[in-house]
Amino acid sequence: MIGNRNLLLLGGRLQNAAFALFFVSTSRAMSSSSSAAAPSFCANSARRASSIHSSITETVGETPIVKLRRMAGIPAGVDVYVKCEDANPGGSVKDRLALGVVEWAERNGHLKPGQTVVEASSGNTGIGLAMVCAARGYPLVVVMSEAFSIERRKLMRFLGARVVLTNPAHKGTGMVIKAKELADEHGWYWPNQFENEANAWIHSITTGPEIVDAFDADGKTLDHFVCAYGTGGTLKGVGKCLRERSPGTKIHVCEPNNAPMLYSEIKTRYPEDGKPSTSFDVPHPVWRPHLLQGWAADFIPQLVSKSVDARYVDGLMHADGDVAMRTCKELAVKEGIFTGTS
Fold first, then answer.
1. Residues catalogued as catalytic
2. pLDDT in tens, 203-237
3. CB-based contacts of 101, cutoff 8 Å, min separation 6
4. Three-state SS for 168?
C-alpha cells in the first residue's frame, strides 16, 4: 500500500501500443549524487526550446512528465505521473531503442553505409527503426507475426520498411529465428533487441537521467517507478540510473497476469551455439497468449534476466488485458492522454 507518495508511469499512442512510465513521488528534495556527463549522443540535444534540428533523430527523448488529475482509484496523498513517450517522433519509447542500437552499431563498425537492417518486432521497435533507418539511409526489413496489428505494418511500410510476416503458431521466438536466418543469409545487420546492451545503454543515458533530473528540479522524491519489462532495455537502463542516483526509488515491473513468467521463477535457457533462443522448440511453460502486444513474448529476454540478477526489480505486478484496455480508454477520456495497453 502506498501512502503520501508520488508514482510515475511510461506511455504513448494507442495504435502503436506505445509506452508510459509511471512514477510516485513526494515533495521532499530528492537525494541524488551528481552524474558523470553522458556520452555525446544526438538524443541529448533534443527538445531544446525553439531549436532547429538537422535530423528527425535529434527529436528523440526529453519527453514530458504529466501528473494524472482525474483518474479514478488514486488514493489521497498519492501523486501519479506519466512519462509520455508518445511524444517521440515515431510515437513510442522504442524510438530510443532504435536510435541507440543504430548509433552503437555505427560507432563500433557493425553497420556499414547502405547496409540493410533486419529485426523482429511486434510493431513499435519496427516503427522506430523504420524512422531512424529512413533518416540514416539504411534499408530495413521487419519480421513480424501475423497476430499483431495491421496498423503497425502499414506504418512501417509507409516509412519505407519491408515487412515479413511469420506464422502466429511460431510465437515471438519464431520471429527472432527468422530475423537471424535472414541476417545470416544476406549479410544484413541484426540488432537483436532482446540481448543488445545498446538497448539498455540508451535508457541509462537518456530516459533515466531525464526522470531523475525532472523530479530533482521540482523538489520531489521519486518513491516508485513502474514499467513493463518488454525487451528489458528500459528496465535495465533506467534501473541502473535509479540505483546510482535515486537509490530510495522502488522499481516495479509488470507482466500479463495470464503469462506470469517472472513470477514463476522458471528461467529461459540461452544457448551458446548462436541460436536466438530455445523457446521456439520449448516455449516458456507458463506463457499463454495475451492482449498486451509488445509486453511478453514466449521467453524471458536476456536483458530482463540480467536486470533481475542485478537486483533492479523490487516488485512484480500483473496486469489483466481487459482492464488494461479499459484503462487506456479512461486515460484518454479523463486525462486527454492517448496511450496503449503496454
1. 94, 342
2. 999 999 999 999 999 999 999 999 999 999 999 99
3. 191, 193, 196, 198, 199, 202
4. helix
